[in-house]
Amino acid sequence: MGPDAHQILEKRLSTEAERRGESVDVTRDAMLRRGLDGAQAERQARSLTADIVLVVATSTEQHELEVAAKEQGFTFNAQRGRAGEYFQLGLVGANRVVAMRVSMGAFSPDGAAARCIQARAETQATTIILVGTAFGVDPARQEIGNVIVSESVFLYDDRHVLDDEQGDAKFKVVHPPTARNLASPTWIDRFQRLAEQASGDGAAEKVKLGIVLSGGARIESAAYRDELVAGLPQMDLPIVGGEMEGMGAISAALSTDPTDPGWIIVKGISDFADAQSRARIEETRGLAARASARAVLRVLQLPPRV
Amino acid sequence: MSATNKYFDTPPAAPEHPKIRAWSGWRATSQRVELEVRRPREGFAFRAPRMYVTFYAADGTSRQDETEWELELDTWLLEQHVKARDVVNETLRFALRFKAAFRPIAIRFGDGFFNSVLVYQLRGGPLGNTEPLAGLLGEIHEYKAAGGSRYDCEQLIDFEITVAAQALLSLYDNDRTAAENILIAALAQYLDERFHITERRQLGFA
């Protein structure tokens, strides 16, 4: 700093001290402390800046994401943000990536909705990717560990229940158009490329895009699962599975741009929402979570489409 | 093989958007047309934008039509030299146009790469030191993405900004100051929404 700049600062300091009714030394200490606090806050804010926030909901999902990240040479360093804890993966491809854990489901105060809104604001991320486990809907065609990717999410709790005056049933359920929410076209495109690669080069993760159901129910009944799927309107893509956190993340991500929502769900199938497969969940959960984490990390490293 | 086949016999004519078909007729009998884009904020969210187009006839009567905002319709209105009702509305209109224009670039290059190139391009460009863009750029933390695709991405972004600048210049009868102010404000609004600047302030993160 040149002598002129130093003199200007000293002059400002003595004016500030006079206004505060303090000695110059006391004011200097206070300003220095405040300046350092500010610098620290700014440094922390910068280090938490990300393009992508990966969201997991269980300790297994967090662990498997960490394993997959380290396996591919990335970090997984915990860092405290103002809205909660994050895990820094660093630069994955051209994307700065952090991960965070939310409570299961979308209803608790620290569930996906609230945390995703906070995380998006804190990190300036433009995409939220939900990673972890989901249930499959077709045990005959799907396998544990297959990765399902949301072309869109169908919020099955978004429904209008009416008396069935003309039919035989006691009531009928109508799903409004708002129940189906399109995921980010940017990431649909990238996961389609991964799905093509997976079928082409026999990559470890078998990836299938389609409609992912999201709702608050923890389903362990094949009868309910089948009834749920059968009761939905005919759609142009297959339903590939279901999970519980998507509805929260969607409400958070929608606020950026309803026509290009910055979210996508990428989950590994850990069960089929029935008693039989849920009985083996301790064995299958890790496998499914790791498959989804690997698929996401692979996609984040894809080069531009040329 | 059939003697006639409509797919092979005549060159294709792109069907017109039904709204454009209707608006073209109204336009022919109007003295002035005005656009208003409405996109109410709901907490942290926005409702889908809608466009309200009013056709004023010479005899003082008017008719209004409304529909969801679409790039194709907005581009037709631009070609017809239709301005938005005021500067704030014009800014929103061009911010929406930037969203639509930049989306394919983000899809091609990925979020992280596009974010980085966009911010660096704007910071280093001729508008980077102009408010309100300069202030917003100061609140966005970016790293400098490297790689051979950077130049391609820069070119595409520059192209879209130039297209918007030229459209504004034409719309405002070569009033460079008016065009530049709207362009800068529209880019600032786009960045604000993409990087959640207002939201950060509302939640106390900034």
Enumerate the strands of the largest sheet of chain B in spatial order, edge to edge or round the barrel. Answer: 1-4-5
- Averaged pLDDT of chain B: 90
What is the 3D shape of chain B?
globular
What is the tally of beta strands of chain B? 5
Structural class designation of chain A: alpha/beta
Radius of gyration of chain B from CA coordinates: 20 Å
For the record, the count of structural domains of chain B works out to 2
CATH class of the largest domain in chain A: Alpha Beta
**CATH architecture term of the largest domain in chain A:** 3-Layer(aba) Sandwich
Quick one: overall form of chain A?
A: elongated
Distance between the termini of chain B: 69 Å
Q: What is the count of helical runs of chain B? A: 9
Q: Which key phrases capture this entry?
A:
heterodimer, A: alpha/beta, Rossmann fold, 2 domains, ten-stranded mixed beta sheet, 12 strands, elongated, B: 206 residues, alpha+beta, 5 strands
Structure characterization notes:
The complex is a heterodimer of chains A (306) and B (206). Chain A has 306 residues and is an alpha/beta fold. Chain A has two domains: 3-41; 48-300, 3-Layer(aba) Sandwich (Rossmann fold), CATH 3.40.50.1580. Helices cover 41% and strands 25% of the residues of chain A. Chain A is built from nine helices and twelve strands. Chain A has helices spanning 3-20, 24-47, 59-71, 112-123, 185-201, 222-230, 246-253, 275-278, 281-300, and strands spanning 52-56, 77-81, 84-92, 95-101, 127-135, 147-155, 160-163, 171-174, 180-182, 207-214, 239-243, 263-271. In chain A, strands 1, 2, 3, 4, 5, 6, 9, 10, 11 and 12 form a ten-stranded mixed β-sheet that branches. A two-stranded antiparallel sheet of chain A has the order 7-8. In chain A, helix 4 runs parallel beside helix 7 (246-253). The radius of gyration of chain A is 24 Å and the shape is elongated. The relative contact order of chain A is 0.17. Chain B is α+β, with helices and mostly antiparallel strands and 206 residues long. Chain B folds into two domains: 1-85, no CATH class; 86-206, no CATH class. In chain B, helix 4 (87-109) runs antiparallel to helix 7 (150-171) and helix 4 packs across helix 8 (176-194). Chain B is globular and about 60 Å long. The termini of chain B are far apart. Chains A and B meet through helix 4 and helix 5 of A and strand 3, helix 4, helix 5 and helix 9 of B.
